[in-house]
Amino acid sequence: MKNILVIGATGQIGSELTMELRSRYGDSHVVAGYIRGAEPKGVLKDSGPAAIADVTDGDAIAEVVKKYDIDTIYNLAALLSVVAESMPRLAWKIGVGGLWNVLEVAREHHCAAFTPSSIGSFGLSTPHVMTPQDTIQRPGTIYGVSKVTTELLSDYYFNKYGVDTRSVRFPGIISYVTPPGGGTTDYAVDIYYYAVRGEKFVCPLQPGTLMDMIYMPDALHAAIMLMEADASKLLHRNAFNLASMSFAPETIYEEIKKHIPQFEMEYQIDPLKQHIADSWPDCMDDSCARLEWGWQPKYDLAAMTTDMLEKLKLKLNK
Ligand code: AKB
User: Fold this and answer.
1) How far is the CA of 277 from the centre of ligand 1 (A)?
2) What is the pLDDT of residues 9-37, one digit of tens each?
């Protein structure tokens, strides 16, 4: 990777991935791509180049790629699972139309491309425990349908045109920097904010709802590690199961209570979120990622909770 474009650089993953890539490859080599109304701010703005790179506008992306001599694109533009259900056509336009634009630019300008898939690419008929790498993918959400399409279209561009496409199926990503917006796994971020502010948390999912989760530093490390991996070792490409930890609401609550014993939580089930969460794996088998490119997470629930609470206390002045 010489010069990198991050599309969606001001979003939950993009804001941290851009900074991590700049620290590894040099500030001037990583372009923060954004859309109007979501301009980079603060250190993200000041530390390196930025350009408008709306995923729905292929010509604009091509211009940025030419101008900065880009060879690697991280395409993070997407509507998350819950919000996508209220705007399915927009979700498709961004997730699939946008991906097509990125892949065409990558083909024409010889770029490698990373576009994440998700645990959302699975559905009710998928085996839920130790979900295999290659298994049934019949999701019931537009988010899931667009993520399965992401995987297939990315493989298609690799097989037909030789575009170096690579991807992971991200679990719910937990971070203290930029909040997620409109996902089913967002509760596992929100709960930390409530705990640190000393407020009662109302959990939208019922006890026992297991889902895979990952701490942001591990998620960033995975994306970069995969893009740097030896291509000859990759039997799979789009997209690798990525596991780190799996927990239900009561487990993360108990973990936080070890640090904040007075923390309270009650349940008020959100039917849409519950329905989506029930269709996703309890825990994935990520042995292909471990074997093919050496994936190994650093954080478990206990280590993540200690770090999240410490960082959020500083952020919220608590
Ligand atoms: C969501 O909940 O929609 C996302 C995801 C798991 O892909 N965080």
Assistant:
1) 9
2) 999 999 999 999 999 999 999 999 999 99
Among the listed residues 143, 163, 146, 147, the one whose alpha carbon sits nearest the alpha carbon of residue 155: 163
- pLDDT recorded at residue 1: 64
Helices (H), 135-241: 142-161, 187-197, 216-228
Q: What is the mean pLDDT of residues 137-163?
A: 98
The number of the ligand 1 atom at minimal distance from the alpha carbon of 180 is 8
Catalytic residue among 34, 68, 74, 143: 143
Domain boundary among 223, 241, 259: 241
CA of 109 to the centre of ligand 1 (A): 30
What is the rounded distance in angstroms from the CA atom of residue 54 to the CA atom of residue 293? 31
Residue 207's CATH number: 3.90.25.10
The rounded Cα 290 to chain-centroid distance in angstroms is 18
CATH number of the structural domain spanning residue 223: 3.40.50.720
Ligand 1 centroid vs 145 CA: distance in angstroms? 13
Please give the average per-residue pLDDT across 246-259, as a whole number. Answer: 98
Q: Is 120 a pocket residue for ligand 1 (Cβ < 6 Å)?
A: yes
The pair of structure tokens assigned to 13 is: 């993953």
Percent of the chain topping pLDDT 90? 98
Q: Is the pLDDT of residue 179 over 90?
A: no
Residue carrying the six token digits 């959400």: 141
Taking the complete model, does pTM exceed 0.70, yes or no?
Answer: yes
Token code pair at residue 14: 């993009």
143 catalytic, yes or no? Answer: yes
Q: Are 110 and 229 part of one and the same domain?
A: yes
Pocket flag, ligand 1, residue 184 (CB < 6 Å):
yes
DSSP character for 28?
A: G
pLDDT of 242 higher than 90:
yes
**Are 72 and 189 found together in one domain?**
no
Domain that holds residue 234: 4-171+214-241
**Are residues 100 and 194 part of one domain?**
no
Whose C-alpha lies nearest to ligand 1, atom 7?
A: 118
Same domain? 86 vs 202: no
